[in-house]
TrEMBL record:
N-terminal signal peptide: none
Subcellular location, principal: other
Lipid bilayer topology: Multi-pass membrane protein
GO molecular function, one term: gap junction channel activity
Organism, as annotated: Seriola lalandi dorsalis
Coiled-coil annotated spans: none
Subcellular localization: Cell junction, Gap junction; Cell membrane
Keyword Transmembrane helix: yes
PROSITE patterns in alphabetical order: CONNEXINS_1, CONNEXINS_2
Function: One gap junction consists of a cluster of closely packed pairs of transmembrane channels, the connexons, through which materials of low MW diffuse from one cell to a neighboring cell.
Protein name per Swiss-Prot or TrEMBL: Gap junction protein
Length: 248
């Protein structure tokens, strides 16, 4: 898979992100994709070939390998990275939709713009961005649970016992480079947990900022009601600006 093309595509959302979002993107492509492409694939490249059991029974080694490794770590991490990065495309797509809508509005209204900044997280774009964060954190947490459930933890034992047919009895099986694989597994798990934490921090930041903005608007509205010097035209202009900011 061409990860550099995916990085170039997802990096477009970086300019619409908060500080937490930029840290998340750096974590994904520097600590996860780069490690996955450069190192992890090579570590697991000989997984099936160097899996050894102390029996010569035909088919026993294959059955035991399938039992101990129901799904490859590499394929699971590849799926995880794809699922985790795809929600960012929702934000990119929504911004492109806004830009196209603003272009049509500008053409038909003699240069006036529907959006002062199509990439500003207001109205529907705010909800799209928040939804993408929920999906990213949810996918990461889901894949961590799958990895934990399938392998009964994040450890890789040096010795595994297998007694499945057609093995004649309980045989001992050994995987290659278990310590190195354990280190990479823990690294990917920790980096996924950090990405989940950054998504949660960004969600809290966005929600708190939204609440603060709503409270500020409420205070300003109360002041306008009390202040009799505000003209009807000014009230109409303020109302129009609020409606424009809430457009999708």
């Amino acid at each position: 898979m061409n990860w550099s093309a995916l990085e170039a595509l997802i990096s477009g959302v970086n300019k619409y992100s908060t500080v937490f979002g930029r840290v998340w993107l750096s974590m994904v492509f520097v600590f996860r994709v780069m490690v996955f492409v450069v190192a992890a694939q090579r570590v697991w490249g000989d997984d099936s070939k160097d899996f050894v059991c102390n029996t010569a029974q035909p088919g026993c080694r294959n059955v035991c390998y399938d039992h101990i490794f129901p799904i490859s770590h590499i394929r699971l991490w590849a799926l995880q990275l794809i699922f985790v990065t795809c929600p960012s495309l929702m934000v990119v797509g929504h911004v492109k939709y806004r830009e196209k809508k603003d272009l049509k509005y500008t053409t038909s209204h003699k240069g006036s713009h529907l959006y002062a900044n199509p990439g500003k997280k207001r109205g529907g774009l705010w909800w799209t961005y928040l939804t993408s964060l929920i999906f990213k954190a949810g996918f990461d947490a889901g894949f961590l649970y799958i990895l934990y459930h399938v392998y009964e933890g994040y450890d890789l034992p040096r010795l595994s016992k297998c007694n499945l047919p057609p093995c004649p009895n309980t045989v001992d099986c050994y995987i290659s480079r278990p310590t190195e694989k354990r280190i990479f597994t823990l690294f990917m798990v920790v980096s996924s947990a950090v990405c989940i934490f950054m998504c949660i921090c960004e969600m809290v930041y966005l929600i708190c900022k939204r609440i603060q903005k709503l409270l500020r608007k409420k205070v300003q509205a109360d002041r306008r009601i009390v202040d009799p010097t505000i003209s009807i035209q000014n009230l109409a202009n303020i109302k129009a600006e609020e409606n424009r900011s809430m457009n999708v």
